[in-house]
Each structure stands twice: as structure tokens, then as C-alpha cells.
Amino acid sequence: MTIEQNVRIIVADQNNASYSVPGLPVAEAQALASKLQSRLHALNDLQLTLKHIHWNVVGPKFISVHEMLDPMVEQARAMADEIAERMATMGVEPIGTPGDLVATRTWEDYPIGRAQAAEHLAALDLVFDGVISGHRDVMNEAGKVDAVVEDILIGQIKELEKSQWFVRSHLIDNDGNLASAGADSAKQAAQQGLEVDKALD
Fold first, then answer.
1. Quick one: which of 163, 159, 59, 167 has its CA closest to 122?
2. SS3 label, residue 194
3. Which CATH number describes the domain made up of 30-200?
4. pTM of the model
5. What transmembrane ranges does the database entry give (predicted)?
6. Percent of the chain whose predicted confidence (pLDDT) is above 70
């Protein structure tokens, strides 16, 4: 752990309250909330990524993808708000600053600029993979500590998976093969998406 990370933990501890919700010990609440912080950052990153794609998608499928993404942006914003408010309710300070997001995230920055719909959607599929997997990990931990957080995450996972289904529906051929399958990075997924799209044309 770096000095910067240690300082961030100390500052966070100083800014946390000395209470939690009834029936949930302060130490357990703070430990769970630290995991929720990663979900808050993931959702804030997701909404920015979705808006970036909304602005930068080009080609014949522009309008359908452009219009599909705005409701997903609003959904991610609402989810981030729900997570942050639960953290605050538990007596823990939610951190929503861009600097902390960039300093602590464990995933790559979205690398695709102006590009065809198939490229963006294949890369976005991997973004959803990461957000949903992270949510599931914290959901499993929350189930041992706080059913309220578990319930929040279950509801969010359901909606995130539905959004991913919308994305994937553009990437699946008639045999059920997913264009982004097996990709190790967003750039690789984008390339695979473009190749499959050209083959289908």
C-alpha cells in the first residue's frame, strides 16, 4: 500500500461518523462502506463512459445507439446517488471527486474515441462486465452484514444486466455468438466488434 493510499484511509476514517444504522456495528458498517465506495466510483465512471460513447459514436447505426445510451446514463447516475446516500446513512463519507476516482480505480480508462457503433458497443460490453462483476462481489459480502445494502445491489445488478442485454443484442449473430467474447481489453473487444460487423454486412 502506498503512502498516498494510507493517507486517504486515515483521512476517510477521520471524516466518518462515530455511529452507524441501528443493529449494524460501526466497524462493520465502515468496512462494508469502503467496498461500496468502489461501486460508487464504478457507477460514476460508467455514466461518464456512456456519455462519452453517446457523443463519439458514428456511422449508420449512430442514432439508435446515441438514443439508447441516455437512459443508461440517467440510470447510472441514480444508482450512484443511491449508493452514496446509503453510505452516508451508515455514517461513512461518500467520496465523489474525479481525483479520487482516478487515483483508486482498478480498471483501465475507456480507450475508444470516435468510432463505429460496433466498436463502442463491444468495448462497452466489457465495461458492463466489470461493473456487474464488482457489484456481485460486494453483494456477496453485504449478504453477511447488511441485508439493506445487499437488496440495493441486487436491484442495481438486475438493471445493469438488462442494460448489458441491450448492448449485447447489437453484438450477437444468429447462432448466439457474442462479438466481444474472449476479449482481454476494450480495444481488443472493439476490434472484434468491428470485424464481426463487417462480416455480417
1. 167
2. helix
3. 1.20.1260.10
4. 0.88
5. none
6. 91
* Residues 13 and 96 sit within 8 Å (Cβ to Cβ): no
Could you write out the DSSP letters of every residue in 28-72? Answer: HHHHHHHHHHHHHHHHHHHHHHHHHHHHHEESTTHHHHHHHHHHH
Helix (H, G, I), strand (E, B) or coil at 147: helix
State how far the Cα of 68 lies from the Cα of 136, in Å rounded to an integer.
25
How far apart are the C-alpha atoms of 5 and 137, rounded to whole Å?
Answer: 22
Per-residue pLDDT reduced to its tens digit, 33-80 = 999 999 999 999 999 999 999 999 999 999 999 999 999 999 999 999
**What confidence score (pLDDT) does residue 201 get?**
65
Pairing of strands 115-116, 57-58: parallel
DSSP per residue over 155-173, as a string?
Answer: HHHHHHHHHHHHHHTTTB-
C-alpha cell at 96: 465523489
Q: H-helix or E-strand containing 115?
A: strand 115-116
Long-range pairs for 53-56 at CB < 8 Å and ≥24 separation?
53/110, 53/112, 53/120, 53/124, 56/112, 56/113, 56/114, 56/115, 56/120
